[in-house]
Amino acid sequence: MKFFNYNKRDALGVLGRYLEAVESYDKAIKISPNNAKFYNGKGNKFFVLERFQEAVQCYDKAIKLEPNNPLHFCSRARVFNNLRQEEAALQDFNTAYNLMQENQESGVFTGDEWNLSEKEINFINDVLGQDRIELLQKMQI
What we know:
The chain is mainly α. Helix content is 75%, strand content 3%. The termini are far apart.
């Protein structure tokens, strides 16, 4: 059942049916309220809908559940960056970067500790690379 719901949420997002995907995440969260990935995924749907405050609330919950997972900090940093809250975005970018550095194996971040997919690892690397650098340049740090 859980596997089906995860695929359903992904499919709804791909189809652009974000509100339905949010509802599906709500159902999954009722079943598994301590699953940080569900909160992160729900936040991602709110991000696409430009409902940024709700996205931040979801990412906050994910961070509370998995405070050492860089994925959640990268996700929240994107929202702060869109809201032009540069200092908060930079703080989250830096936290995610430091978490990745602490958890590298042979110089390569694998994401194994948090069971991250290749897509999620690529997202983290992209956000920490391009978005973080652009923000640093913008803030002239």
